[in-house]
Amino acid sequence: MEDRKKILVVEDEGMIRRALCDKLEEEHFEAVPAVNGKEGLEKAISERPGMILLDVVMPEMDGITMSQKLEEHEETKNIPVMFLTNLSDSQEVRDRITKHDYEFLVKANWDISDVVKKIKEKIG
User: Fold this and answer.
1) Angstrom distance (rounded) from CA 19 to CA 46
2) Largest CB tally within 10 Å, which of 15, 36, 90, 113?
3) What is the DSSP code (8-state) at residue 44?
4) Tens-of-pLDDT digits for all 124 residues of the chain?
5) Dist. CA 42–CA 27, nearest whole Å
6) Are 67 and 51 in contact (CB under 8 A)?
7) What is the pLDDT of residue 106?
8) 8 A C-beta contact, residue 118 and residue 82
9) Residues whose CB falls within 8 Å of the CB of residue 6, separated by 6 or more in sequence, listed in order
10) Distance CA 115, CA 107 (A)
């Protein structure tokens, strides 16, 4: 039996995190939740997911800082990251994210099915 692809969901809003994890499980992915960037970084290193869904604004460590730290570790630097944010009007966030080849989804502009579709496009 083939292993399910593991997706790390780093999101501090519990309702969004649970909804994403539930939908990913329905779509036969293995969802690994994390409540902030610090926990997300630890789980990225230990779990080695196939992709990371990463909120930008979170307590303890924001998503941009976490993505920079991912690039510092050999075992995590090539994991695809898809940022999820409410900051559609923040050019600084957009600039910092788009200088890398990251996906960027504004929370108000998508539903969970859109996220799953993007994941499948990236990693199958």
Assistant:
1) 23
2) 36
3) H
4) 345 799 999 999 999 999 999 999 999 999 999 999 999 999 999 999 999 999 988 989 999 899 999 999 898 999 999 988 776 545 666 666 655 666 777 777 778 888 888 888 888 7
5) 25
6) no
7) 72
8) yes
9) 29, 30, 32, 47, 48, 49, 50
10) 10
pLDDT value at residue 105: 72
* Strands of the 51-55 sheet, one edge to the other: 30-34, 6-10, 51-55, 81-85, 103-106
Distance (Å, whole) CA 118 – CA 124 = 9
Q: Phi, psi (5° rounding) for residue 105?
A: -120, 130
Distance CA 116, CA 118 (A): 5
List of long-range contacts for 85-88, beta carbons under 8 Å, 24+ apart: 85/55, 85/56, 85/57, 86/57, 87/56, 87/57
Assigned token pair, 51: 């992709």
Distance CA 78, CA 12 (A): 23
